[in-house]
Amino acid sequence: DVQLVESGGGSVQAGGSLRLSCAASGYTYSSYCMGWFRQAAGKGVEWISSITDGGSAKRYADSVKGRFTISRDNAKNTLYLQMNSLKPEDTAMYYCAADEGCTPYGFGYWGQGTQVTVS
Fold it and tell me: What is the per-residue pLDDT across 5-35, written as a single tens digit (0 to 9) for each?
């Protein structure tokens, strides 16, 4: 079974940084597109970034472009999201997701999430 486990969330002051990790198991990680999503309290799920299976192509939502960086280590089956210049509006539950395709809202496998709070 596909398992995705996020970590690295926490509380940080505005302007600070966090790095999220997503440990993947149960499938051929290097063959899947990976993505990061978030959901703020009372709002819908927002796609924020995705990266192709080999890591050659990355996409970002306008809301995080220039501040967040997605990366992956296929040797470690791990996805990362480096978040810099954090803003209070970045406060949300952050989820990693996996799928064979890379359509922003087409990901079929999801982790349980990690909370990020920016004050």
Answer: 999 999 999 999 999 999 999 898 888 999 9
**Measured between alpha carbons, how far is 37 from 54 in angstroms, rounded to an integer?**
20
Map residue 31 onto helix, strand or coil: helix
DSSP conformation letters of 62-98: TTTTTTEEEEEETTTTEEEEEE-S--GGG-EEEEEEE
Do the Cβ atoms of 51 and 33 come closer than 8 Å?
Answer: yes
| 106 DSSP 8-state letter | -
d(CA 117, CA 119): 7
> How far apart (Å, rounded) are the C-alpha atoms in residues 46 and 27?
25
The gap from C-alpha 84 to its chain's centroid, in whole angstroms, comes to 14
Hunting for tokens 């395709």 — which residue is that?
Answer: 101
Structure tokens at 85: 């210049």
Neighbours of 117 (CB within 10 A): 15
Residues 59 and 50: beta-carbon distance below 8 Å: yes
pLDDT of residue 38: 98
